[in-house]
Hints:
single chain; Rossmann fold; Transcription Regulator spoIIAA; 6-stranded parallel beta sheet; 5-stranded mixed beta barrel; 19 strands; binds iron/sulfur cluster
Amino acid sequence: MVTQKTVGYYTLGCKLNYAETDAIARTMETEGYARVKFSEVADYYVINTCSVTEAANKKSRYMIRKAYARSPQATIIIVGCYAQLKPDEIQKIPGVSLVLGALDKFNIPDKIKEFEQLGSQTLISSCEISQVSLFESSYSLEERTRSFLKVQDGCDYNCSYCTIPQARGKSRNATIAHCVSQAQDIAQAGVKEIVLTGINIGDFGRTTGETFLELLQQLDTVQGIERIRISSIEPNLLSSEIIQFVAQSRVCMPHFHIPLQAGSNAVLALMRRRYTTELFAHKINEILRYIPHAAIGVDVIVGTPGETDELFEQSYQFLASLPISYLHVFTYSERDNTDALNIEPKVPTHIRHTRSIAMHELSEQLHASYVARFSSTIRPVLFESKQKNGMFTGYTDTYIKVSARISEQYKNTIVPVFLDYTAHGMIGTIV
Length: 431
Ligand code: SF4
């Protein structure tokens, strides 16, 4: 009997990486590699890295060291943005066997064969990002109730602080027909909710002559899919038509995630973002005009070069004035080969930290008042997983986390739930 080779996977970073890791694992399974938990001793480890900040690089290195300590004889394979951007740096980390750039990350079985034939210490297979033009489709099934479906990759924008276009290449996408077929596969697997995922998904259609709105319209008809969330969409690409479609859609959730990044036009210009705070505020108001209960999450970066105390204050006040639901706060960190490195004044690290704390506190206030609005109302909840305390958790259509003491039969079902906002969070009772 041949013993199956085992592979442990670890994913860092964004939803796109999670979708891609699962796609890689399914390909490996068809080639005879069994998936095991990352915490187990395995023959191979695949670490799908992130490089959005210096902290992400550091965490990627930490996970490599962890895998090596667990199984020093294992073949450790590094893919993802950090592998594309810094292969030489990764090569020096003890235990690393293969470093695969963007061209080869979906080609791991062949690269393993190459590595084993060569018998070399470390195989680096890197590429110029300009060589990467293929769209590799992916979706995740690990969570069972929710799937991240990759519909778009890469970005043609050129924001001054961002390294993603260097790691992921030009904007490109799957066809709508392909996305629909993948959504059908996801539905077949019993998953109820799809999160549409990409780097700049509002740019969907650039390579196929289609539009993101048409994609939503087609996905709306897929039997078995009961929820679709749009992971994140640039404000300048969030059209009135998309907002109005979401408002009346069967499956699109009343939930938007929109990157603002700075609430000051001066900083937005330095970042080379493609909108103003006025346009952003207009979009928020438009969403709420059509969908008054919509959840709106907003990304903000603190401490980018050029963000003086006064401009940060402007940013803070702008965000505090918006009727939004929560913030995703990122702290700027220097990335190689970005124009932001040449912008003055730099913001000292301790001030970046103080600003991050202020924005996190603002986010908590915004979230608490958004969530409180739903106390004593009934909303549909998709129940996902059982916690150690015996309670199930799930999310409302408006992306509020709910805990409820319910029986196993409700797992992966959407049911109407009466909500009670308590000191322990939102508690639900099935009605
Ligand atoms: S839109 Fe800007 S921040 Fe977003 S991936 Fe593209 S370049 Fe980076």
